[in-house]
Amino acid sequence: MPLLNTTSHTIDDIYALPDGQRAELIDGQLFMMAPPSRIHQELVMELSVSLRNYIKEKGGECKVYPAPFAVTLNEDDKTYV
């Protein structure tokens, strides 16, 4: 039985990944991600355009950023999605 990996990762570990390698960092734990599928990307585009058009029609100032777009949820360096 393999031992549980207790290594705590930081945002620096995300930045050190090879180009094209996708991962999320949640509470110091690194989660590797598979590339998105074609249908996923189609849905992202449709939703992004729909949201952007709605915001513009209503005179809103919000912006729509499709992935990949990094978000840090905490003020520490242990969470990055």
UniProtKB/TrEMBL annotation:
Gene3D superfamilies: tt1808, chain A. Residues 13-78 form the Putative restriction endonuclease domain. It holds the Pfam family Uma2. InterPro entries: Nuclease_put_TT1808, Restrct_endonuc-II-like, Uma2. This is Protein conserved in cyanobacteria. It comes from gut metagenome.
